């Protein structure tokens, strides 16, 4: 007996799935090893996946390590998120020449297939949807890329040292929104992926790849492994109302302690999968005959971020860190009805000072008590 919304792929069929996606015109993006990290990049075949690689992470620490098996999704979040493909870090908006005419920059929206999207990152994409697809002022570039996107999620069975998605309600099982959801299993029965089918397009490409019927016991074991992963998170956000905690901690003396360690480098905002702020800059050539306007990511840790007529509002590191964490865990709820943190742990791993958002939230709670 099998269910209609589940299937199984053996390891060779995953390779075939990538071939099918490319043949169907998708630009396949997935994890791969480069520059001493597992990063996201365009895949020309499944051979580029990080088979046999895992990671060791800690506050301000990230290292590759060899696994004892050939798992391709046996690693936690790397330095990049899928945001960069839907909301590029830098793009040209328009140009103007000596004729005085403005020329909008044509944009080719790739037809992306994201392979290996973790539950936390799928939740982050949904948050970006709330922000950048808002009915009043949608971001046209994001909308075009998002509309053509196919998502193949990878459920987590091995959370990392810095993962805390379970305490944020965003994992380890991928929520709705994927086209296909994979749970990787390696045991005496072989290397395979239990597949949950989430859309008609997902079912179509899976059929082309040759997915087989899933055994109910295999499906149950996969579900159990994902559920158990929730009990093995490396971190946890403190319980309670984080929005209220941030509001009541505005004048907390703990902000001075954070500021003494924070470098205001903006790494946390650059690696965060939900930070969406941008700014624009106008550039000209030496002749002054050609001008361009570019949009690029910005950070609330930048001194100029809060600049208004008369000067910068948040001049201290203390005030800028407070703005970041208070928005992420607190006022994001007021704006978008959800937290801005998905528990991926990237901000902890890639902070040069090793500042841990879960520890800082816990310290604020302790000071308040």
Attribute tags:
369 residues, alpha+beta, seven-stranded mixed sheet, four-stranded antiparallel sheet, 13 helices, 33% helix
Number of strands: 15
Q: What is the tally of helical segments?
A: 13
Q: What Rg, in angstroms, do the CA atoms define?
A: 22 Å
Helix content: 25-40%
> Strand order of the main beta sheet, please?
1-11-10-9-8-2-3
Give a quick summary of the entry:
With 369 residues, the chain is α+β, with helices and mostly antiparallel strands. The protein has helices at residues 11-23, 83-86, 119-132, 140-147, 165-168, 200-209, 216-229, 242-248, 254-261, 267-271, 317-336, 346-349, 357-368; strands at residues 6-10, 27-34, 37-42, 53-58, 61-66, 90-96, 102-104, 112-117, 150-154, 180-187, 190-197, 278-284, 291-297, 307-308, 311-312. It has a seven-stranded mixed beta sheet with strand order 1-11-10-9-8-2-3, with helices on both faces. A four-stranded antiparallel beta sheet has the order 7-6-13-12, with no helix packed on it.
Structure, described:
The chain has 369 residues and is α+β, with helices and mostly antiparallel strands. It is built from 13 helices and 15 strands. 33% of the residues lie in helices and 23% in strands. Strands 1-11-10-9-8-2-3 form a seven-stranded mixed sheet, sandwiched between helices. A four-stranded antiparallel sheet has the order 7-6-13-12, with no helix packed on it. Strand 2 and strand 3 form a beta hairpin. Helix 1 packs across helix 6 and helix 8 crosses helix 13. It is globular, with a radius of gyration of 22 Å.
């Amino acid at each position: 007996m099998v269910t209609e919304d589940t299937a199984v792929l053996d390891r060779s069929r995953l390779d075939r799935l990538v071939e099918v996606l490319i043949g169907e015109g998708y630009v396949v993006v997935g994890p791969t090893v480069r520059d001493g990290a597992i990063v996201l990049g365009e895949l020309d075949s499944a051979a580029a996946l990080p088979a046999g690689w895992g990671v060791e992470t800690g506050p301000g620490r990230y290292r590759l390590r060899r696994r004892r098996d050939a798992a391709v999704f046996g690693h936690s979040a790397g330095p990049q998120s899928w945001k960069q493909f839907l909301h590029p870090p830098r793009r040209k908006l328009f140009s103007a020449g000596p004729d005085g005419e403005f020329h909008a920059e044509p944009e080719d929206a790739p037809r992306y297939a994201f392979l290996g999207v973790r539950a936390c990152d799928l939740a982050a994409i949904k948050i970006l949807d709330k922000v950048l697809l808002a009915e009043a002022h949608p971001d046209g570039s994001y909308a075009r890329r998002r509309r053509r996107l196919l998502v193949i999620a990878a459920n987590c069975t091995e959370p990392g040292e810095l993962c805390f998605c379970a305490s944020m309600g965003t994992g380890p099982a991928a929520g709705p929104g994927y086209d296909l959801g994979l749970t990787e299993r390696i045991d005496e029965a072989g290397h395979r992926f239990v597949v949950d089918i989430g859309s008609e397009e997902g079912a179509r490409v899976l059929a082309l790849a040759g997915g087989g019927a899933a055994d109910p016991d295999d499906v149950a074991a996969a579900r159990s492994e994902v559920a158990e992963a929730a009990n093995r998170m490396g971190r946890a956000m403190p319980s309670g109302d984080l929005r209220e905690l941030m509001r009541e901690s505005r004048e907390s003396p703990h902000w001075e302690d954070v500021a003494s360690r924070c470098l205001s480098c903006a790494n946390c905002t650059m690696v965060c999968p939900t930070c969406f702020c941008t700014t624009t800059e106008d550039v000209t050539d030496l002749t002054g005959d050609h001008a361009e306007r570019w949009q690029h990511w910005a950070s609330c840790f930048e001194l100029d971020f809060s600049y208004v007529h008369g000067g910068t509002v948040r001049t201290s590191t203390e005030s800028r860190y407070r703005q970041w964490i208070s928005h992420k865990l607190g006022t994001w709820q007021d704006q978008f009805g959800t937290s801005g943190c998905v528990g991926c742990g990237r901000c902890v791993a890639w902070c040069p000072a090793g500042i841990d958002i879960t520890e800082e939230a816990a310290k604020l709670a302790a000071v308040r008590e």
